[in-house]
Structure prediction request, 214 residues.
Amino acid sequence: MPEVLDRPVTSPRQDKPRAPSAPRDDYRSFGNMESRNGLQERVEIPLMLRALGLPRGGRVLEVGCGRGVALPVLSERLEPEELVGVDIDLSLIRAAGLRVSRTQTRASLHIADVRDLPFDNNSFDIVIDFGTCYHVGGGVKGQLSALSEIARVLRPGGLFVHETRVAQHLAHPVRSFGRRLPWARVATLAVERQAVLWTTRRRLGPSFDWSRQD
Prediction:
């Protein structure tokens, strides 16, 4: 069985434990669509990995992993040293746990908010997001928190892989209408490669030292 962290965790930037097992008031998960899941598993993710030429190995994090549809494919195609999935919804993490167990995928699962990730600075080589940052609560401030957290947990030179606005519009035309991410305010995530539906950004700069942050 995969490791599922459903107890309070402590973020590297705070001393007080938090209990993220219940969704936040501003959180609303997408409904389960098996046809969409199958399309993502068999077509979308393999195409993305081929188009972007992502490296194998390393530590890989998927934020907003939901029911874990992508995790077995990422495990097979990228052969990561460590694969981690996080989602804010406990019920989705439990569904992901069943999926990775059934497919014998080596992955650890955590209940966590992308705006406050429970991982050390510079922990991952690749972070993958299939649209979560577009839909976090808190408007631009929430989106900025999510992107800043992703930059924090990426090692220098690490890659952030995310869907473009085009992909979001095709997948969720109503819910994604008018939504864009504040990239200009996250200069440490620089565009490296684009493939219409997906973009790769490389984390620039030295290792983060959050003890010096306000």
Remarks:
- The radius of gyration is 16 Å.
